[in-house]
Amino acid sequence: MGDVVHIYDTTLRDGTQAEGVSLLVEDKLRIAQKLDELGVHYIEGGWPGSNPKDILFFQQIKKIPLKNAKIAAFGSTHNSKNSVDRDPNLQALIKAEPDVITIFGKSWDLHVTDALNISLDRNLEIIANSIQFLKKHLDEVLYDAEHFFDGYKNNQEYALKTIKIAQEAGANCIILCDTNGGTLPFEITPIIQKVQKIITIPLGIHAHNDSETAVANSLMAVQMGLNHVQGTINGIGERCGNANLCSIIPNIKLKLKKECISDEQLKGLVNVSRFVNEIANLKSWGHQPYVGDSAFAHKGGIHVSAIRKNSFTYEHIKPELVGNSQRVLVSEQSGRSNLLYKAIEYGVDLNKETPEVSNLLKELKKLENLGFQFEAAEGSFELLMKKAIGTHKSFFDLVGFRVIVEKRVGDKVPLSEATVRIKVNGELKHTAALGDGPVNALDKAVRKALIDSYPSLKEVKLIDYKVRILNDKKGTAAKTRVLIESADNHNKWGTVGVSENIIEASWQALVDSIEYKLLNDEERKEDK
Q1: Could you tell me which of 47, 13, 7, 17 has the C-alpha nearest to residue 31?
Q2: Where are the domains of the chain?
Q3: How far apart are CA 329 and CA 296, in angstroms?
Q4: Which of 297, 360, 374, 506 supports an S-S bond with 388, CB 3.0-4.6 Å?
Q5: CATH second-level architecture of 397-527?
Q6: Are 162 and 107 in contact (CB under 8 A)?
């Protein structure tokens, strides 16, 4: 295996054991292609002996040319009731025709006696027989020593025997597994040191995150010379998840200074993280290290002032190295530096001497005191900034709107109807529309009024809608904040509205979303 730390991704197998995660065969194939582009060395496709979906995956993946990764099939040592050459699980692994086979066996004597209900010696025979049998059919067989760290703590001598027999049977690599995720980083070092005295073939680590130490444990193992690391994208997996490769990979490459994937491949990390979440229908964790939207986001005025001079004052790496980007948030904690930074980002002409900066800062803090929040609504903030300096253009004017929600006996769902009256280029437009709820009806009615004048609005999609109660003690009379996220063919943006009336708050956010789209369309035309 050389000096390169090999990355073994098990998102398609261990990751799918996470609650709420289910992948179709087509999903798994698409993720496998992304993982290959990222440069991982092994992609564990599934357990072909466990379900038809995984069998189909191994058939289909053969048709897809991969540049970097080997495809691994996962399974267990043979059943104690079967002879090794007649075990259905091992036969299924061979029939899948993967590049690599990974099998797990028991290292913890408790599991041998209580779960398998066999003798300790019989378990050693099963490990040896399984590996020897598979090696007759495949060049590369990896051995996952399941529950190794717990087994070591409970019966050191026996746990070491299980991996020694795996080495003697011909395993190419032995992976030490913290299957229950209960091992702490300071325990890793002495255990691995003991293992390294008796094992001469490559060693790997497979950590779970039940104690929030999976990444730390994996890095400790790599620092000690282990050159095979298993994990999943975004750390998805059973219970609390697996070791998160989105943290492990950049830590290995940028902090431990060891080779794993190339610099260019590392720039695709954010893209792969978001792709997996999208395919698995999981919400991205904004505060996830390295790849989260907030990983390099700055809010405090002192912080922003510093990063404008030197980004390393408050950033541990350059975000571009992992495909992320620096973001400056605007809030009641913002100072002039935040506003100037955002002005540069939006191409707005502001500097410290501009009187509008003070006015804008006052207006921002006043609005946030009322409940507005611009951290996730940069579309609304850009409009606010352009209004302050007089460069904002109004594309239409509201005359009035009305929303009716009617529920009749026998109706399965309430009927929502919105009527709007707006002026576009001096012409009064009066339109109505039905929708799936009052906000959807309002959205449809506004678009109906504007679409002839601004046909590009056909591109806009509302991709997220959030409502936050700001003062819950007032119950149904509480002030609400509505955040809308919209997207077109070019980008996505957030807008915000606040009111005691949820429809009014939604209208504010909706209007900002439309105005932001039209303003950006106009600026793009001018740039051309």
Answers
A1: 13
A2: 6-261, 297-375, 397-527
A3: 10
A4: 360
A5: 2-Layer Sandwich (3.30)
A6: yes
Whether the per-residue pLDDT at 140 is higher than 60: the answer is yes
Neighbours of 396 (CB within 10 A): 21
* The pLDDT of residue 498 is above 50: yes
Residue among 5, 31, 430 at smallest CA distance from 254: 5
The rounded distance, in Å, linking the Cα atoms of 138 and 490 is 48
Q: Does domain 6-261 have CATH number 3.20.20.70?
A: yes
Of the candidates 348, 432, 433, 444, the one whose C-alpha atom is nearest the C-alpha of residue 388 is: 348
Q: How many CA atoms lie within 13 A of 408 on its CB side?
A: 4
167-176 confidence digits (pLDDT tens): 999 999 999 9
Report d(CA 399, CA 421) in Å as an integer.
Answer: 5
Burial class (CB within 10 angstroms; exposed 0-12, middle 13-18, buried 19+) of 347: exposed
Question: H or E stretch including 173?
Answer: strand 173-178
Report residue 451 as tokens: 């679409």
**Do 6-261 and 397-527 agree at the fold level?**
no
pTM to 2 decimal places:
0.73
